[in-house]
Amino acid sequence: MSTPHAMVPQSSPITERIDWLFGLAQRHAQEYASPEAWLARQRHLANHPTAILVMKCMDGRINIPIATQTPKGIIQPFRNLGGIFNLGWPHLGETLTAALEKVVRSGRQALVVITYHHSKGDERRGCAGFNFRTADARAHTFEIQREVSAVFGAAHGTVYPLVCGFETDEDALVVHGANGETLNMADLSEADVPGLPQRLMHLLPDMPTQIRHDLLPLLLGNLRHIAQIRQTVRTLDIEHREWMICVGRGFDWLHLPNLALIIGPYSPDLADPIRKAAGIIQANMRAGRIPDDGFLVLSSVPYEDIGVDRARAVLKSNFMADFAADVVRKEFEDLAPLMTVRKTVLNWNSRAVEPLAPVG
């Protein structure tokens, strides 16, 4: 999203923050559905047919489409607290498999980018989900890579799992190669562009030619983005000021730092990340980082078709919001009276957020 961070009403009353939030979602849908955005997606897919899925942390700083200058809607995100995933989790395995089977049926290959994030300037700007231990976060991504290979094939002819670091001070990608080497886009310049295809061949010799061809524009876009970042004065947000807990999928429009704690519906123990998120909200209020007049629990479930598909999305959204609210009520008695619950479904074709009956 292009909405400036300065416009986030962090200290406004909770009702105004919620109104602003749904306005943000509406603007994102309008941008996504514009003729220019639609044409950009079609042009990109015609030249680069590889499907791109990204597994990443909930941290709003990790906006891969912006950091790679890729048209909205090309990259399919999987977001979870700490970027923690396990393909043995029933819902995650089914969701990822369904997405990749759809890709394969259309005759395309897929690139699954598995990310961890860190800050070169201050380790406390790293991943809170791993207690700022970058080595642990990185090790976890390689475990996910092994799981993807075990499920979709170690030869990587159709589905290629790629580990990438994301350095949040400059939004720089760090590509981990099959031979243990890395390519840090922050170390490159325009002079390195002509030799980049050859470097990728050396770094990723087992990557299919088409996938490598379609990875290249992301890296070139990242190189341009880094150059733009270096020409601006950037505030590196360290302080946690999250005032909402988001549960579900379809939060692509919510890419702002230190605003939301996003919990994907993947882990079989959904209560644990909700509990952790509520604890962060409570700490933010007690420290005066956010107003103590309220916080938001927001659920979202995407659907592709009207009828049964949407009806099931409504039920899932109701369940997840009610489940999260129950966890807060049972374990955070002082926090519960300050909770507002909103339930939504997301039209995947238009990216329009559709509010359901408000509660709380």
What does this structure look like?
The protein is built from 9 helices and 11 strands. By secondary structure, it is of the alpha/beta class. It folds into 2 domains: 44-230, 3-Layer(aba) Sandwich (Beta-carbonic Anhydrase, Chain A); 244-355, 60s Ribosomal Protein L30, Chain: A (2-Layer Sandwich), CATH 3.30.1330.140. The strands form 2 sheets. It has a 6-stranded mixed sheet with strand order 2-1-3-4-5-6, with helices on both faces. A 5-stranded mixed sheet has the order 8-7-9-10-11, sandwiched between helices. The relative contact order is 0.13. The model is unreliable at 1-6 (pLDDT under 50).
Question: How many extended strands?
Answer: 11
Measured by DSSP, the beta-strand proportion falls in 15-25%
* Average of the residue pLDDT scores: 90
Look up the CATH topology of the largest domain.
Beta-carbonic Anhydrase, Chain A
Helix content: 25-40%
Largest sheet: 6 strands, mixed
Instruction: Give the class-level CATH name of the largest domain.
Output: Alpha Beta
Count of the domains: 2
Shape assignment: globular
Order of helices and strands: HHEHEHEHEEEHHEEHEHEE
- Give me the side-by-side strand order of the main sheet: 2-1-3-4-5-6
List the helices and strands and how they pair.
Elements: H1 14-32, H2 35-47, E1 51-57, H3 64-68, E2 75-80, H4 90-105, E3 110-118, H5 134-152, E4 159-167, E5 172-176, E6 182-184, H6 196-203, H7 209-230, E7 244-248, E8 260-263, H8 271-286, E9 295-303, H9 308-331, E10 339-347, E11 352-355
Parallel strand pairs: 1-2, 1-3, 3-4, 7-8, 7-9, 9-10
Antiparallel strand pairs: 4-5, 5-6, 10-11
Helix pairs in contact: 8-9
